[in-house]
Design brief:
TIM Barrel; 11 helices; binds flavin mononucleotide
Amino acid sequence: MYQFIRPLLFSLSPECSHHLTLKGLSLLNKVGLGSAPEIQANEAVTVMGIKFPNRVGLAAGLDKNADTLDGLAAMGFGFVEVGTVTPLPQAGNPLPRLFRLTEQNAIINRMGFNNKGVDYLVEQVKKSKANCIIGINIGKNKDTTAEDAAEDYLICLRKAYAHADYITINISSPNTPGLRDLQYGDELTALLSCLKAEQKDLAKQYDRYVPLTVKVAPDLDDEAIKQIAQTLLDTEIDGLIATNTTLSREAVQNSPHADEQGGLSGQPLTKKSTEVIAKFSQHLQGKVPIIGVGGIASAADAQDKLVAGAALVQVYSALIYQGQGLVTKIRQGIS
Ligand SMILES: Cc1cc2nc3c(=O)[nH]c(=O)nc-3n(C[C@H](O)[C@H](O)[C@H](O)COP(=O)(O)O)c2cc1C
């Protein structure tokens, strides 16, 4: 069906078609028309102590406020990651902030964590009847200084903990000034140590262990990858999500939108993110599971990520280009 709707959606501004699609999904789900093929028992996999119905998830950023959780879950995802959410609501960057690079099957975005705040998101998750694993992706408000960043993550962690199956610490969005600096050295160790300490307290309080994953950028050199991997091992982080969008424009130099600021996702990112996954996998030696994301547009792309060392995969941009059929195609094509 998506091939008929896509021309209409692509005739609208990217952000307008984004809102329309999410609204449509919710509606389809409410009237019982949004269901994907049944998930088979042999698709299930246990990662971070969680039983995922299948390996294919929705990456963060599409449903920032968990408004469409049920509709998205009905598309056949094994897990849906909502957010990024921040302690306080914020508007994000001025429009336009989302660009289609249609020829390259890519997207550039500089949304800037537009979201309704963690309290709103938690209420939406509580209302949801989604029968998939739910990840909540947390970040910091734009106005929060680097020194106070940990406090923002702590606020979100405490509020989201009881309602998530896993929680992602997003330190890799290129659209919040200074956020990616948290990926390095002592700052990373300090942030992850304090969040792990809080996780320990929360696990006692709720009598439930909710794993913490860290989401990294693809724009990391070999030394940075080695150091981040070591910090993940030292702080006993439960999982790694690799990767977020890239600042590189190497693969899209001829696109009319190539000069737009923001993170590039989709096909131009496929190879780069797979390489980053392979490098992390070498250092992590299976001790920290990896969720692979970045330019997955087919079962073969997903399989490449699994071969590189990922235990699970996520999609975003290719869903905009291909629609729901992509999820089923990947689920049926991976082994
Ligand atoms: C419009 C848009 C918004 C995004 N927002 C977020 C976000 O809020 N938090 C996050 O961790 N990643 C965000 N991402 C990154 C995706 O989750 C994913 O890591 C990235 O797009 C690479 O996957 P893809 O090539 O399949 O899109 C966003 C991506 C896009 C295209």
